[in-house]
Here is the input.
Amino acid sequence: MSSYVSREQRVPKDHSLRTLRALDDGIRANMSALFDQRSSHTGRWSIPPEQLLRVLLVQILFTIHSERQLVEQLDYNLLFRWFVGLGIGDAVWERNSSASISTVCLIPTSHASFSAAYCI
Here is the structure.
């Protein structure tokens, strides 16, 4: 799909998700080394854990009740795609893969870092 307007231009400058994404970028920079360390012996996950955690934020903030609805929303909602880091033409992963959200969040250290970062 080609578009003359970038994803960045489609999100209003004063949208609250812009502020959250800027905060999240800083947190992710600190957690990236943790994710690399956790997956050093097996390789990185097929879906980056940074994206999975952003998807979890979308699900919580916008009260999306199921992973099926979450994946469906990611497929067509440009705001959510922008926040998570998916391009307009990027494929959304299969719903079965979204079970990985729970897997990433059950890693004790990442969960503690994630919670500490957002529960200020």
Q: What stands out?
A: Helices lie at 7-10, 16-38, 49-61, 67-76, 78-84, 100-105, 108-118. The chain has a mean pLDDT of 74. Residues 7-118 form one domain.
